Hints:
Largest sheet: none
Order of helices and strands: HHHHHHHHH
Structural class: mainly alpha
Helix content: over 70%
Distance between the termini: 26 Å
Radius of gyration: 18 Å
Number of domains: 1
Shape: elongated
Number of strands: 0
Strand content: under 5%
Amino acid sequence: MPEFMALLRRDMVLARRQGSAATSVAVFFILTVSLFPLGVGPESALLGRIASGVIWVAALLATMLSLDRLYQSDFEDGSLDLIALGPLPLELVSLAKTLAHWITTGLLLVVLSPLLGVLMQLELSAFPTLIAAMALGTPSLSLLGGIGAALTVGVKRGGVLLSLLVIPLFIPVLIFGVAAVDAAAGGLSPRPHLLILGALFLFSVVLAPLASAAALRLNLE
């Protein structure tokens, strides 16, 4: 729909103009993963064992770093009220905003993950699975995180509350994302874990916009 695409383009243009957010996510992701070889030592076997968990936890934290800007800036300047009064249902507004969030931040995590896999001495055979798991998991993080962002709209310094709300929602994605990469690194099939990640993504696409829209209606009344 033209309204959906217009809102998606608007959010992507704003994100590009405010490039510091995407840069902060990328730098945080890289620095967080880079600290582990310094902290646990350069032993390849040890780094390879913890690589998948470290990369996924860093991706989860980096996603949370940028969630507070999903609705807050529009709420503060009144744009969110105008968008809510427009012809586009709030469910599609939420979907467009989370899609823009993933394109500007989550996609960057997918691209950077193989490079950090090299840093963490991840098994070469697990790299395709790492990319596939991140491509399936990071959209779910954006969608589920959007629920927390919608619930905390208008809350001053709501970053801590947002984290407490979304971390339990992120845990299934974290578990199966790590399990898929570990299975591939151990010579097992990652297919069951990737299928569950795909199911979580479909579940999030259907239900997360509904929950986010309900939270926005509650906060805008």
